[in-house]
Amino acid sequence: MKILIVEDDLRIAALLQRGLERKAHVVDVTHTMHTGYQAAIDGLFDVLILDIKLPDGDGMSLCEKLRNVGVTIPILMLTARDSTEDKIAGFHHGADDYLTKPFSFEELHVRLIALARRPAAYVENQVLRCGPLELNTGSAEVRKDGVLLELSRKEFSLLELLMRNAGQVMSRQLILEKLWGSDFEPEANVVEAIVARLRAKLDAPKSAPLIRTVRGIGYKVDR
User: Fold this and answer.
1) 159: buried, middle or exposed (CB in 10 Å: 19+, 13-18, 0-12)?
2) What b/e string do you get for 49-68 counting C-beta neighbours within 10 Å, with b at 16 or more?
């Protein structure tokens, strides 16, 4: 998994990072509300660990802000606040889980794995738009210039991944991990084959492809 930690306590952040990296996860760490927001917007993470008390704001406000701009990454709030009212407030602001300090690292790890497997509630009925394309995650429909397109499940999943990360290049390896899982070994050129099928359905004759190839890196859809 790729995990983002937003924690102002440098000692706790370092302990979490070391522990999770020993579990073979990729971990990015930020220490403020501002840098955490930018990282969550710009990066592609499987789960976010978010402290409530931050030097330039509070984690609940950051959580709500991310949800309001369409970020659907599962969020686990990590805090010393253990009252029922605080927990309810965390969930109301968009958190998916809530763990109080002090905590067991193994429990934290298990919760993160469960969150990464859980479909995000905020994905339902979200509409993504890139140029002439409109993708509705709730109805699993894709339209181009208002015309409904018929896509296979994998075609839809790949297009959704690219549109959720519009403007960013998605590598072939990352696409494989997101669509099939890190342990799956697909046939050679399976990503290229799905991209080719998508282009046949999305692109008008002699027009520039909506899914762009970045040679030697991967694919992207412009915003």
Assistant:
1) buried
2) bbbbebeebbbbebbebbbe
Q: 3-class SS at 15? A: helix
Tell me the domains of the chain and their CATH numbers. Answer: 2-116 (3.40.50.2300), 127-221 (1.10.10.10)
Task: Give the tens place of pLDDT for each residue, 138-187.
Answer: 778 899 999 999 998 889 989 988 998 888 898 888 888 777 765 556 56
Q: Determine if the pTM surpasses 0.70.
A: no
Q: Contact, 142 vs 148, CB < 8 A?
A: yes
Neighbouring C-alpha atoms within 13 Å toward the C-beta of 65: 14
**Structural contact between residues 175 and 218, judged by C-beta atoms closer than 8 angstroms:** yes
* 4, 35 contact by CB (below 8 A): no
Separation CA 127–CA 139 (nearest Å): 10
Residue 217: other Cβ atoms inside 10 A: 11
